[in-house]
Design brief:
Porin, two-stranded antiparallel sheet, globular, 18-stranded antiparallel beta barrel, mainly beta
């Protein structure tokens, strides 16, 4: 299957078109974030603040999400809104008990569901005890010195993809893959060949409402530091007649992957730190916010459990929300073509603010809205505190003389078909603040500009016993996706922040999964991608690739090592891909391979408690 995407217009056109895009569409996109923020604030005010608990967020690579997705596909979860991640450990515990109740009430027992629920009960046994004993509120001071230890071995070979985010300007900040065929891995640095990674997480709670948690990683080859990769492209390019100064990828071996301090107030959690985010319905890759790049520092406000709204608004069903404000990195170069001669601009440390909200008005229907805006930075902040607040909320984005902005806004939905073995159909549309007349048959009816699409079908019960499932997913990425006419583009330390395929691209995935012995799951994913080149540069060709990935997962299970009780799980991924004209260079083909072996241990003992 192939999809033809129109190439990006020339830079002069993009710059002038952005300044002249229709005001109604521009204001509707800006106001999307304001509406989401206002609704979330109203909902927060309407929810009674009764008590507090400890909120510890679950890493996005935790197998708990796969287990919850499967239980949800079996129809055992009433209000799991998977479009906003991460979720808290106490929320995973609540969902586990919900699945148990629904399974007990089912007409026929389901062996696989029973195994998954037991695994979740063991992983979140402490939080489940709180809920079963009605002690979720105001727990005592406790320390969990070792939540999880994960060791990974990664073998990687083949050319890494580059992403020219806007132009052929070699001084512009370019993005590049961290590891071929291993996207959404928090931007961990690896080198060609063998790599070793160690991840350790822990948490502590004080005063019944305040939590500190963190996960630290050590990544890269043992024998030498992770390799530096030039970000300038094409190689040997000149800028104003002088050799270009290249940018290099972030290769810090020791890194805080995620972590922060969380204050719980009723059903709301206010956190500051480095938190992974996964928004939307995409399974293989997120369209709006994801963990392809490393986490950035942010202040986050979100609900812990789904809740109903007061009054007639309860018909919108259970809802969850997340709001954040953070800052990005420096070294964000771009060439300003509106000046004569063009000058290099660098908006160091721009702000980024976002809002997402999801509802489930019917047992068979979910929908949500999201909005993110990037603004400010050195030389781009000629406004006061009211201007900052207007941009962060989307209420008033000002004008380019005071400071430019770049916005995204999207909608997503999911439909369940119980008569077809609870098949799920999902779709997401994301618009970006760049004017374009590219592929937009559906998005053209919405207040969005450059429009990208992602959607799919998930069949949780290909076989009646639920042991076999299948998924089809596609993505049509618009040429202006993640781009901007200055340095407000969607990359963080050289990694794309959402869909790793990048702009002006197409991807399709078809996967089939099977559970074995109710403990192991194997998946085979066949995928095909296309990436169109920037036509400003002569001699480039469309990049095409195809490949296969095999994944094997063992769900967490308890075992003893000389009476030392542990939970253990295993994950293996092997992938191979052939890429024709990689990075759009004619005659440059690459065979890319990747092998991941990951083992995780959860100590099964309880927290150290002080009463």
């Amino acid at each position: 299957m192939q999809a033809k995407l129109t190439l990006l217009p020339d830079r002069q056109t993009v710059v002038s078109a952005k300044a002249a895009h229709p005001a109604p569409a521009h204001y509707l996109l800006a106001w999307t974030g304001a509406v989401i923020a206002a609704v979330a604030a109203l909902l927060t005010a309407c929810c009674a603040v009764r008590a507090s608990t400890y909120v510890v967020y679950i890493a996005l690579d935790d197998p708990a999400y796969d287990e919850l997705d499967k239980l949800n596909g079996m129809g055992l979860l009433d209000d799991y809104l998977s479009e906003i991640r991460p979720i808290a450990r106490v929320e995973a515990a609540r969902l586990t008990l919900e699945a148990q109740r629904n399974l007990d009430e089912a007409e026929q027992p389901d062996a696989l569901a029973g195994v998954l629920i037991r695994s979740l009960r063991e992983e979140f046994h402490e939080e489940i005890q709180w809920l079963e004993n009605d002690h979720e509120d105001n727990p005592p001071t406790m320390i969990h010195p070792l939540e999880r230890v994960e060791a990974q071995y990664i073998y990687s070979s083949g050319t890494r993809r580059r992403f020219a985010l806007f132009s052929s300007n070699p001084l512009e900040y370019q993005a590049q893959e961290a590891t071929p065929l291993l996207a959404n891995n928090d931007g961990l640095p690896t080198s060609p060949g063998s790599n070793e990674i160690l991840r350790i997480s822990n948490w502590a709670g004080v005063g019944g409402f305040l939590t500190a948690y963190g996960e630290t990683s050590v990544a890269g080859p043992i024998v030498h530091s992770p390799a530096l990769f030039e970000q300038a492209w094409p190689p040997g390019a000149l800028y104003n007649g002088s050799p270009a100064v290249t940018q290099t990828s972030d290769t810090n071996r020791l890194r805080l992957l995620r972590g922060g301090v969380v204050a719980s107030i009723g059903n709301q959690a206010l956190a500051f730190g480095y938190q992974e985010m996964g928004w939307g319905t995409g399974y293989f890759a997120p369209l709006s916010q994801g963990n392809n790049a490393r986490a950035f520092p942010a202040l986050t406000f979100q609900s812990v459990h789904p809740r109903l709204l007061p009054g007639f608004l309860r018909y919108l069903g259970p809802f969850r929300h997340q709001i954040f404000v953070g800052r990005l990195n420096n070294g964000r170069y771009a060439e300003d073509l509106r000046l004569t001669p063009p000058l290099l601009k660098n908006y160091n440390y721009p702000w980024i603010s976002g809002q997402v909200i999801a509802f489930k008005p019917l047992p068979t229907f979910e929908f949500g809205l999201d909005h993110v805006i990037m603004f400010g930075g050195a030389g781009n902040s000629n406004y006061g505190w009211t201007g900052w607040l207007g941009r962060a909320t989307g209420l008033n984005t000002g004008n380019t003389s005071q400071g430019n902005t770049n916005s995204r806004g999207g909608v997503f939905l999911k439909i369940y078909l119980p008569s077809l073995r609870n098949t799920e159909i999902y779709q997401e549309i994301l618009g970006e603040d760049n004017l374009s007349t590219e592929f937009r048959p559906v998005g053209g009816a919405l207040p969005f500009l450059s429009v990208s699409y992602q959607g799919g079908v998930y069949i949780p019960r290909v076989t009646a016993d639920g042991l076999t499932d299948a998924r089809f997913e596609y993505a049509l990425i618009e040429p202006n996706y993640s781009r901007h006419d200055d340095s407000l583009y969607w990359a963080y330390y050289g990694q794309l922040m959402a869909d790793p395929i990048g702009p002006d691209a197409t991807e399709i995935d078809l996967s089939v999964g099977r559970w074995f012995n109710y403990r192991y799951r194997g998946d085979a994913d066949v995928f095909y991608t296309e990436r169109a080149p920037n036509f400003e540069i002569a001699g480039l060709s469309k990049e095409r690739s195809g490949g296969i990935a095999i994944d094997v997962m063992q769900i967490p299970g308890r075992f003893d090592v000389q009476n030392f009780s542990l939970l253990g799980s295993l994950r293996v991924r092997a992938a191979c891909e052939y890429v024709h004209d990689i990075n759009w260079m004619r005659g440059t083909d690459s065979v890319r391979t990747m092998v991941l072996i990951s083992g995780s241990l959860w100590p099964a003992w309880g927290s150290w408690i002080w009463h």
